[in-house]
Amino acid sequence: NNTVRDMAKESQEEINLKTKQQKKLSKLYEQHSEKRDKAKSILTSCEQRDVRVRQEIKNAKAQYKKITKNLEKEIEKMKEFETAPERCTKEMKEFETAPERCTKE
């Protein structure tokens, strides 16, 4: 009788132990799943940020190119002003000789 009772008690203890182990495993799995989901969320967020940053870089490059082109045009205009005094003196000489030309005509 004792041995059957002892065996039943041992079997119940084993069942209880395995149940506890199963609960621990379930809890660990749940925690792992939560961490995995959080990691996926962070990864997705990083990927989206990466896409936005790449787009911002692309826009900045395009804007830089546009500004550079406009600056080059402005520099060309400035070069015209550099030769302006020469043109003015040339025109002034023409005006200086205007009375002579008028009297000739």
What fraction, in percent, of the residue positions are helical? Answer: over 70%
Name the structural class.
mainly alpha
Radius of gyration: 45 Å
For the terminal residues, how far apart are their CA atoms? 150 Å
**SS element count, helices:** 3
Proportion of strand residues: under 5%
Describe the structure.
It is rod-shaped, with a radius of gyration of 45 Å. By secondary structure, it is an all-alpha fold. Helix content is 96%, strand content 0%. The model has no long low-confidence stretch (mean pLDDT 89).
Can you describe this structure in just a few lines?
The chain has 105 residues and is mainly alpha-helical. It contains 3 helices and no strands. The N and C termini lie far apart (150 Å).
Keywords:
single chain, 105 residues, mainly alpha, 3 helices, rod-shaped
Indicate the topology.
Layout: H1 2-82, H2 84-96, H3 98-104
